[in-house]
Amino acid sequence: MRIHVITTGGSLDVEYTLQGTFAIGPPVVASLLERARTQHEITLESLCRKDSATLDDTDRDLIRHRVQETDAEHVLVTHGTDTMTNTAEHLRTITGKVIVVTGAMQPARMTDSDAPFNLGLAVAALQTLPHGVYIAMSGRIFPAGHARKDRARGVFV
Amino acid sequence: MRIHVITTGGSLDVEYTLQGTFAIGPPVVASLLERARTQHEITLESLCRKDSATLDDTDRDLIRHRVQETDAEHVLVTHGTDTMTNTAEHLRTITGKVIVVTGAMQPARMTDSDAPFNLGLAVAALQTLPHGVYIAMSGRIFPAGHARKDRARGVFV
Amino acid sequence: MRIHVITTGGSLDVEYTLQGTFAIGPPVVASLLERARTQHEITLESLCRKDSATLDDTDRDLIRHRVQETDAEHVLVTHGTDTMTNTAEHLRTITGKVIVVTGAMQPARMTDSDAPFNLGLAVAALQTLPHGVYIAMSGRIFPAGHARKDRARGVFV
Amino acid sequence: MRIHVITTGGSLDVEYTLQGTFAIGPPVVASLLERARTQHEITLESLCRKDSATLDDTDRDLIRHRVQETDAEHVLVTHGTDTMTNTAEHLRTITGKVIVVTGAMQPARMTDSDAPFNLGLAVAALQTLPHGVYIAMSGRIFPAGHARKDRARGVFV
Fold first, then answer.
1. What chains are in contact with A, requiring at least 3 Cβ pairs below 8 Å?
2. Which of A18, A113, D101, D122 is the most exposed place for a label (fewest CB within 10 A)?
3. Does residue C11 have a known ligand-binding role?
């Protein structure tokens, strides 16, 4: 199976800068998939490096456009958690593909990150679910439109 | 959803001893699921701590017995990779449950482990697949009887 | 040997919050010293949790007061890197003690942190150097007044 | 300051193999020193990859020969913990150099390793101590001949 990965930024890719601030760094997903010894063909597209709270409809149109344009049937979108549910809903009109949106509450570069687990969750969803748009977070797979982020607890419900 | 986790040992739980040897330590799965912020009810059963190369039919009968006995519909079995496929086949006669067997090529206590990814893969399979027995390794979900370990490459195919 | 550790915050103790921002979390030094199997008597005092760019003379007076007051001869101060050199100079009038100031460019909670190495550097300096005030960073031990932070490169020279 | 590093193996460099055993892998010291942003000139010499319990006098003669031959005044030897004290004593006849022997109880490739701390300890000792041979372990600096490994507790005393 081939998986096309589109990265958009978010906490998943956050790094700590020399200036003592967090910034969205180079995407980590390729190294995480390699460490997991994933036996899929992976293609990668780094679309943007944004905090998802700053994404607007133009950004979401671009993400939708890129998901539609790829000839891959299985698309993984990595995304900040703040507006992940909005983007997932924005992708719902796409047909003929399995699309899974995931991210992380703790950056992959931190020792206690949820990132590798979430990627495993997403990769399983890509191969077990019918065409549609899904969110993979908090150990759960949600169809787009059926998840919301509980900001106080830092989980998707 | 409730997930009952049965741990049997394997590389996943390996630790490095004061004597400079490896041993199968206390199960890591609870801490990995917590770090992943998993929103499922988890029950844990530490059945044994064995290198799976040493498991015999008595051990496999015990694992099958425990999987059957639990009232949970969703069962995750953590297991060494050497005979994971044998145990999965041994569980195939169990009906009415989703059973996913996973493990790791690198111990969870090592920095480059595939363990958290594999657990994510398994947790997604538990909630997306019909009743049956599956192996979650190498980024893939295999029905029992359809996977083998490629020992030279360290992947399941 | 007894080491009294005074923590003041800085990148060393940074954590990533549920709101996707960084904050100075609970001090990490005790767990790092335990992991290193350090055979010293350690006493800990969490004085403040501040970004060192925000420390003023009142804060530095308080740090100096606490270093002076402890009956320990060997004092380790963990501190943000931005004004670590200023605080070290502020402590120079203290006599009869070995005082080492250290911190980290990358938070200890990140996988590629310099924190454990820097703590090792500081703990060795505490036991090998005469009374005085020192900075332990970038693999080097500097007497107070002889180090500056090269902000562009993220190292002390 | 230039530091010449001679690596001999030991738990520090242990990796977990595809066969589920531990082996002594490529030396980790260069990447640990880089992560620590060490501002010294480092030269590296990978002499052997041995469990120190298997080192004999021929091996120790070779280590002594290499330490003597290098034109560096500051030499760091990474070594297994079982016979680290023997090797340090074997080096005592060397004059005109600061020689520090260190290693780790937990491999650097494990998440809870003492390796980066121990390297920091050793690097500080190299620059603060007079010519001689030292062991840097358990948060302490011991002159050669004054340390022994407490095998039951996994610490040097």
1. B, C
2. A18
3. no
